[in-house]
Every structure is written in structure tokens, then in C-alpha cells.
Write a structure and sequence with these properties.
- The protein has about 140 residues and is of the alpha+beta class.
- The protein has a single domain, classed as 2-Layer Sandwich (Alpha-Beta Plaits), CATH 3.30.70.
- It has four helices and five strands; from the N terminus they run E-H-H-H-E-E-H-E-E.
- The chain has helices spanning about 25-30, 40-55, 55-60, 100-115; strands at about 10-20, 70-75, 80-95, 125-135, 140.
- The model has no long low-confidence stretch (mean pLDDT about 95).
């Protein structure tokens, strides 16, 4: 891992996003709450939060971080059709929190796929990306 011990402790935040594209009927099923495996949004939210907390275990050379915040939110989008996912992460530390936000989105998307795959194997996970980050020596980034 990179030695960050000489870096100043600062508040750092990151926002990531992605989407799961699916058939219109699959989106309607997810929104109805009647998917065979249960509440797809609750399961995906918890999975994303848990994944963010385990990022250092999943991504080689990532520093383990004491997250102050991780949120995972969903926005149905009939135009896709599908579900847009946003994760926000926050930490006071010596290294950034981008990987945690990205991991939360990725695992939430995979969980949505898993929860709905019985009715739509053609779903696509798309556009997982860092939207913005603040804090640290490198400053801010906004897509």
C-alpha cells in the first residue's frame, strides 16, 4: 500500500453512480415490491453499504477506512428503463474514499441483478463512475 502516514487528516467525500438497465416489466416488478426474492431495494442498499465497509478486503492495496458515512440511493428511470444508483461516502482520514463509493454502487447493482435475474437475464450494469470527490491534497474533482 502507499504510505499515507505523512498526509494530513482531512474530511474527504466521494459520490459515485451507476445504473442497471432492464426490461420495462422488470422495472415495474421491482417497483411493485413483488419480486420473488423480496424487497430488491432494501437488499441492494444493505449490500452496497456492507461492501463499502469491506472495500479494503475486496480491492488489493486499498487502505481500510473508518467510514463516517455511506449511503446508497436508487432512482427508477423509465427512460432507460432501469434503476440509477448513487452512493455517497465520507471519512476523516489520510486517504480518499472514492473506492468505497464505487464499490457500494457496484455491489448494489450486482444485488439488483441477482434479485431480478429470474425474470430478466438481459439486464446490464452500466456507467459505474466517480461523480465527484472532495478533500485531500489533490483537491476536488467533479465530472
Amino acid at each position: 500500500m502507499v504510505d499515507v502516514s505523512g498526509k494530513e487528516i482531512t474530511e474527504r467525500q466521494a459520490k459515485a453512480e451507476g445504473a442497471v438497465v432492464m426490461a420495462k416489466e422488470t422495472l415495474n416488478l421491482a417497483l411493485s415490491g413483488n419480486a420473488k426474492k423480496g424487497d430488491v431495494f432494501a437488499a441492494a442498499r444493505i449490500a452496497g453499504i456492507m461492501a463499502a465497509k469491506k472495500t479494503a478486503d475486496l480491492i488489493p492495496l486499498c487502505h481500510p477506512l473508518m467510514l463516517a458515512k455511506i449511503s446508497v440511493d436508487f432512482e427508477p428511470d423509465a427512460a432507460l428503463p432501469g434503476i440509477r444508483i448513487t452512493a455517497n461516502a465520507k471519512v476523516s482520514g489520510q486517504t480518499g474514499v472514492e473506492m468505497e463509493a464505487l464499490t457500494a454502487v457496484a455491489v448494489a447493482a450486482l444485488t439488483l441483478y441477482d434479485m431480478l435475474k429470474a425474470v430478466d437475464r438481459g439486464m446490464r450494469i452500466e456507467a459505474i463512475q466517480l461523480v465527484e470527490k472532495t478533500g485531500g491534497k489533490s483537491g476536488s474533482f467533479k465530472r
